[in-house]
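The authors assume throughout that readers already know how a fold can be written as discrete tokens. For illustration, here is how one protein appears when written out as sequence plus structure tokens:
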Amino acid sequence: MSNVTIYHNPACGTSRNTLAMIRASGIEPQVIEYLKTPPTKIELESLILKMGITPRDLLREKGTPFVELGLADASLPDELLIDAMLQYPILINRPIVITDKGVALCRPSELVLLLLDNPNIGQFVKEDGEVVHIQAEVLHTQAK
């Protein structure tokens, strides 16, 4: 698998850990710093559809204008939420990883291992010191 893309925010620990796990699997992904290069409306809608989630599921609250924009109102239509994410890309939760196996919001970061051909990265230590040691057989069993 050589076709891996990550929508990345280098200021986010989860995003940095996810990128490091991809690299530990032997892949150098295409890195899109989505705050500098936000997805288009079509791209964002496609990502949401491929992840099988709603626009609300992709909204990030912490450290964003979520409250100020009144986005907590559950009656807001999906179109408005998508427009808000396009206007304020910081509202898009991350990291989003795209591979031949699928597309996922990788929170927690080890979810990325489900998308990789070589998830046997051995022991991996996250930035916060948490140790991740998952073999493919265990990972795929947990995913079922």
In short: The longest strand covers residues 5-8.
